[in-house]
Design a protein that fits this description.
Helices cover 53% and strands 13% of the residues. By secondary structure, the chain is α+β, with helices and mostly antiparallel strands. Among the domains are: 147 residues, Metalloproteases ("zincins"), catalytic domain (Zincin-like, 2-Layer Sandwich); 90 residues, TolA/TonB C-terminal domain, CATH 3.30.2420.10. The strands form four sheets. It has a five-stranded mixed beta sheet with strand order 1-2-4-3-5, sandwiched between helices. It has a four-stranded mixed beta sheet with strand order 6-13-8-9. Strand 11 and strand 12 form a beta hairpin. Helix 1 runs antiparallel to helix 2. The two termini are 19 Å apart.
């Protein structure tokens, strides 16, 4: 069951990334921050399985009448919501311990690599000298004022081989390599500083940290690493657009970036939002041509908001509408019901010896083809005459549950006696589905 859930989640997330890619193509003339938000949503989707949202919706549905036959559209939605198993899962479960061990090794390798990078930058920040005056600090304070940043950003001068970059999430620090200021003119220096302040305002280190977790957990998925490159590319272009909107000249800004790249030979680290990330060639072309951006109008904002809401609310609504039903043949919707005492709780073991008619479940063909097997647990209310009056699904695979409900509702029990009188009881019933080898 675990491999089934993981497999469903992986291909759902893959489809989500593909759809996000198509959406970013439609938004290619929009600001880069919009495309970055789309890619970040696709990244977060890896941490949020659709099945969780469907389960929330199922909990919201208090009860449903007897299930109707599922059509092809419903089966397709079940697949999307993560309730359809693949036949290959049964064979993979045999090597599950080895797969888990391999996955853990990959997770540890990614975390160790990222930690080593973080330690390198942390050491540079620890040994750096605080800057409280000078043209760098003056430029930083001017940019903070223009961007209405209330909390001043700490600036430290480092002798380590790092590019100018923002380190930290809660209290970000602007690391400034020693000696680079002498190579930059005032306008170039201010543009580079503005780029870093854009990272702080956008909280890019936080979004990068979120995707680092995604990369560590899903290190085996190629699209995750491709998605990380798209996030870096769009975040840098978003900062470039912000710098130009503050009034920096495109040529001056581009020359400043090239001087930084010449000065800092080390490649950008994953835990630092710097100025040399992304595709430099594309960035230079975009900066120099000052590509015209179309701001999102109200209609496009509503469209994007609707798409995001549908992605979140859709699985929940599906769970509400298609929650596994409770048998409710004895309910009369409009008639007032007399007050009744609560049914007596009886253990499954005690009730199993009182069954006088037991109908075996009919194994669903679709479940057979998908090699789905397991246990379905139902909670039943047994009437005073021994008939099964109401059923509720407690746990079990959705493709097996309807067959279990259909069978158990035909069971017959001897009346349960308490103080010399027959009473209603509530008990659990386990129905097992096992494929013969």
């Amino acid at each position: 069951m675990m491999l089934t859930a993981v497999g469903n989640h992986l291909w759902q997330s893959t489809i989500f990334v593909v759809l996000a890619g198509l959406l970013t193509l439609a938004l290619r003339k929009q600001p880069a921050r919009v495309r970055h938000a789309v890619w970040l949503t696709a990244s977060v989707k890896f941490l949020l399985p659709f099945s969780w949202l469907v389960a929330i919706g199922s909990r919201l549905a208090w009860f449903r009448t007897e299930a109707i036959a599922k059509n092809d559209f419903y089966i397709a939605i079940e697949v999307i919501s993560g309730v359809t198993s693949a036949g290959v899962v049964s064979s993979l479960e045999r090597v599950l311990p080895a797969l888990i061990g391999l996955w853990l090794c990959g997770v540890m390798a990614v975390f160790v690599t990222r930690y080593a990078q973080w330690r390198k930058v942390w050491a540079a920040a620890r040994d750096a000298t605080p800057l409280r005056e000078g043209r760098e600090v003056a430029a930083l304070r001017r940019i903070e004022h223009l961007m209405r940043i209330r909390q001043p950003i700490a600036m430290r001068q480092s002798r380590a081989s790092v590019e100018p970059g923002v380190f930290g999430i809660v209290r970000p620090i602007l690391l400034w390599p020693a000696g680079i200021s002498e190579r930059l003119e005032d306008a170039q220096l201010e543009a580079i500083v503005a780029h870093e302040v854009q990272h702080v305002q956008r909280r890019d280190n936080l979004s990068a940290a979120i995707h680092m977790v995604v990369e560590a957990i899903f290190w085996f998925h190629p699209l995750v690493w491709w998605l990380g490159a798209r996030l870096v590319e769009e975040r840098e272009r978003a900062c470039d657009e912000g710098v130009l909107q503050l009034g920096s000249e495109g040529q001056v800004y581009a020359e400043g970036i090239l001087k930084v790249c010449e000065f800092c030979l080390a490649s950008p680290l994953a835990c630092v939002s710097g100025v040399a990330g992304g595709d430099l060639k594309k960035r230079m072309v975009s900066i120099m041509t000052k590509r015209v951006l179309h701001k999102l109008d109200l209609g496009r904002k509503l469209l994007l908001g609707g798409v995001g809401l549908a992605a979140l609310a859709g699985p929940i609504v599906f769970g509400v509408l298609h929650a596994t039903p409770i048998q409710a043949d004895s309910l009369e919707a409009s008639a007032p019901q007399p007050a009744q005492t609560a049914p007596t709780q009886v253990s499954q073991k005690d009730m199993s010896g009182m069954v006088v008619k037991k109908v075996p479940p009919e194994y669903p063909e679709a479940a057979k083809k998908a090699h789905i097997q397991g246990e379905v647990k139902l909670r039943a209310i047994i009437g005073k005459d021994g008939d099964v009056e109401k059923l509720e699904l407690v746990s079990g695979h959705p493709q097996l549950a309807p067959a279990a409900i259909e069978a158990v509702k035909q069971w017959k029990y001897r009346p349960y006696m308490k103080d010399g009188q027959a009473v209603e009881v509530v008990t659990d019933i386990d129905v097992n589905f096992t494929l013969l080898k």
